[in-house]
From TrEMBL:
Family per record: Belongs to the UDP-glucose/GDP-mannose dehydrogenase family.
Lineage of the species this protein comes from: Eukaryota, Viridiplantae, Streptophyta, Embryophyta, Tracheophyta
Enzyme class: oxidoreductase
A Pfam family: UDPG_MGDP_dh_C
Protein name per its UniProtKB record: UDP-glucose 6-dehydrogenase
EC number from the UniProt entry: 1.1.1.22
């Protein structure tokens, strides 16, 4: 039986390995992690991440050919193929602070692999890393290898959270990069055989190592760029009376452009887009390409602008002050169908409103109160000026309540902000919400999920991203 071990039981490692185990009964898959709590959760009824369909997949294979363990060294030592899926946050100190990837976890994983290996291994880069990381990892492995042959492959994961299982079952493509040597080709072939259990071979793309690493950064940068492009146009729509939904549709029906990823929003979040673009920016700067670096930087700047534009709109439309007003925040995760809040626009929006002394009542179906409070009290790292900003003051944090019921969150509120596009928000009893709110009752839809016409009919004043303004809002001074 071929043995696969994956280091890192997170959002990428966990679901990917579960699907490999399901689709390849002849392979024994073990996911290891240094976090005992995470491994315990993977072995329990309550998985550590919320992902539609994942529980089903894990239950079918766990204990058969899928295992979760903290005994990192034993399982790495025994494996034929080791996937590395550890976290690669942005560096907050030293050279490249604010942009470069912090490869500490990666390096320690590589050193451990070199230490415990007694047989030849294929080491697969799964976490997104800067271009040429494979070269550094190769050096660490081969200089400590006691004659063992290591082949490094780059196999970046393209799954999106909330649709991870669907994406893994039916990927647009699987990308495998390797050394262009006969040993390298053999290693690529072995990994291709794993995916070929369920992915059509024409969708398995094989490239050189650097192309695979760069393609992942470039794909995320292109996706984020589409959102920043549409969000930039949304600001112009609000100023002119055009409707972003109509514009996006018209633009997206050009088959050269395509319809997906053109939804205007309060801004993109998630662990990948900002981090990967910053990484790309840093690589460009290090390679003497400041113009290219600046080009990509602006994708993040527009994202920051979109978040602050949203906060400004809330404050300015509520008579230029939200001080002591109760504002309901519906949705805190960075997108629907996940409990993940990394880089969620909700953090910046909430901080902005708290800065104006609002009282916040937050509801999200998958994010716990502890988690939200931790996110809001953590100091933020400003990517553009690599300094730590002051954390929220304890007085500001006291203005936050987390509710487990939408109607509690919105009761007596002056305004409601939709920050995540959870499906359940489309089915709310808006008449009940309106009746229980202070008047005038405002709705700020950061995801364009509510039926603004219906809500205006009930009596709400509605602000949607990139849509013609509520006639009531038109009379107010324009915001930047
Ligand atoms: C463009 C739009 O495509 C068309 O829809 C609009 O109505 C008018 O403007 P056009 O300028 O005629 O049409 O040609 P297009 O095929 O878009 O090419 C424009 C330029 O981009 C050309 O110089 C072309 O060589 C270049 N190009 C195009 C690239 O460099 N790379 C590409 O991948 C595509
Ligand atoms: C992304 C990539 O899609 C995935 O391929 C890669 O492997 C990891 O990064 P993820 O961050 O999980 O996945 O979610 P994604 O669906 O890409 O959404 C990212 C953010 O963009 C979310 O905050 C989402 O709400 C926002 N978004 C997405 C928009 O604002 N508008 C859109 O049209 C699409
Ligand atoms: P991603 O979204 O890329 O999957 P996560 O942060 O969710 O990232 O997961 C990365 C996991 O890797 C974490 O659970 C972390 O504990 C684990 N990890 C980091 N370094 C090591 C290591 N040296 N050995 C084992 N696990 C590690």
């Amino acid at each position: 039986m071929v043995k696969i071990c994956c280091i890192g039981a997170g959002y990428v490692g966990g679901p990917t390995m579960a699907v490999i185990a399901l689709k390849c009964p002849s392979i024994e898959v073990t996911v290891v992690d240094i976090s005992v709590a995470r491994i315990d959760a993977w072995n329990s009824e309550q998985l550590p991440i919320y992902e539609p369909g994942l529980e089903d997949v894990v239950k079918q294979c766990r204990g058969k050919n899928l295992f979760f363990s903290c005994d990192v060294e034993k399982h790495v030592g025994e494996a034929d193929m080791v996937f590395v899926s550890v976290n690669t946050p942005t560096k907050t100190q030293g050279l490249g602070a604010g942009k470069a990837a912090d490869l500490t976890y990666w390096e320690s994983a590589a050193r451990m692999i070199a230490d415990v290996s007694k047989s030849d291994k294929i080491v697969v880069e799964k976490s997104t890393v800067p271009v040429k990381t494979a070269e550094a990892i190769e050096k660490i492995l081969t200089h400590n290898s006691k004659g063992i042959n290591f082949q490094i492959l780059s196999n970046p994961e393209f799954l999106a959270e909330g649709t991870a299982v669907r994406d893994l079952f039916n990927p647009d493509r699987v990308l495998i990069g390797g050394r262009e040597t006969s040993e390298g080709f053999k290693a690529i072939e072995k990994l291709r055989d794993v995916y070929a259990h369920w992915v059509p071979v024409e969708r398995i793309l094989c490239t050189n190592l650097w192309s695979a690493e760069l393609s992942k950064l470039a794909a995320n940068a292109f996706l984020a760029q589409r959102i920043s492009s549409v969000n930039a146009i949304s600001a112009l729509c609000e100023a002119t009376g055009a409707d972003i939904t109509e514009v996006s549709h018209s633009v997206g029906t050009d088959s050269r452009i395509g319809p997906k990823f053109l939804n205007a929003s309060v801004g993109f979040g998630g662990s990948c887009f900002q981090k990967d673009i910053l990484n790309l920016v840093y690589i460009c700067e290090c390679n003497g390409l400041p113009e290219v670096a600046n080009y990509w930087k602006h994708v993040i700047k527009i994202n920051d602008y979109q978040k602050s534009r949203f906060v400004n709109r809330v404050v300015s439309s509520m008579f230029n002050t939200v001080s002591s007003k109760k504002i309901a925040i519906l949705g805190f995760a960075f997108k629907k169908d996940t409990g993940d809040t990394r880089e969620t626009p909700a953090i910046d929006v909430c901080k902005g409103l708290l800065g104006d002394k609002a009282r916040l009542s937050i509801y999200d179906p998958q994010v716990s109160a502890d988690h939200i409070e931790r996110d809001l009290s953590m100091e933020k790292f400003d990517w553009d000026h690599p300094v730590h900003l002051q954390p929220m003051s304890p007085t500001a944090i006291k203005q936050v309540r987390v509710e487990w019921d939408v109607y509690e969150a919105t009761k007596d509120a002056h305004g409601v902000c939709f920050l995540t596009e959870w499906d359940e928000f489309k089915k709310l009893d808006f008449q009940r919400i309106y009746d229980d709110m202070q008047k005038p009752a405002f709705v700020f839809d950061g995801r364009n999920i509510v039926d603004a016409v219906k809500l205006r009919h009930i009596g709400f004043i509605v602000y949607s991203v990139g849509k013609p303004l509520d006639p009531w809002l038109k009379d107010l001074p324009a915001v930047a």
